[in-house]
Amino acid sequence: MSNNINQAAMLRKDARTVVVVIPSSHQGMQGSEIYTYLADKALNVERGDDVTVYARGQLKLAKVTEVDDTVDFPPNSSIKLQWIVGVVDTEDYLVNTNTDAGIQEAIEAVADKKLRKQVRKQLLSTGADEDMLNEVI
User: Fold this and answer.
1) How many beta carbons lie within 10 A of that of residue 85, not counting itself?
2) What separation in angstroms does the CA of 46 have from each of 19, 40, 41, 59, 62?
3) Rounded to a whole number, what is the distance in angstroms from the first to the last CA of the chain?
């Protein structure tokens, strides 16, 4: 039996290594931990991507800081490299938050128009000059 517990990954042409930072939930990036994981090249992992990984038996969110197209790990390492679970797809999130922002902007425009109309009506009822109101409201 080989001493290299990562030998299978090193022989795969579809594997690469990625370095990730897993932030501490209490200290942000200050208390973060840095790990090396394996990634399937088909995932197209890039520096800056958010990925999910298993760490200490739990799924964690991590940020990719380095990508290496090879699996080059010390031959006699006692650390078994783990595979990333996947890349976080934020496309739907961005579509939804942008849609919400557009709807909110439309709501505010309607509310503003309604308020202007109410103020104008109140001012006219108190005898304000209509021509002057047309210029300012």
Assistant:
1) 16
2) 11, 12, 10, 20, 13
3) 84
- In 1-137, which residue ranges form alpha helices assigned H by DSSP? 7-11, 91-125, 130-136
Of the candidates 2, 14, 3, the one whose C-alpha atom is nearest the C-alpha of residue 71 is 14
| pLDDT category of residue 1 using cuts at 50, 70 and 90 | very low
- Specify the DSSP element, H or E, that contains 69: none
Tell me the C-alpha distance between 91 and 104, whole Å: 20
Which phi and psi (to 5°) does residue 78 adopt? -95, 0
Sheet holding 28-40, edge to edge: 28-40, 15-24, 58-68, 50-55, 86-87
Interval 90-103: pLDDT, tens: 899 999 999 999 99
* Cα 54 to Cα 75: distance, rounded to the nearest angstrom: 23
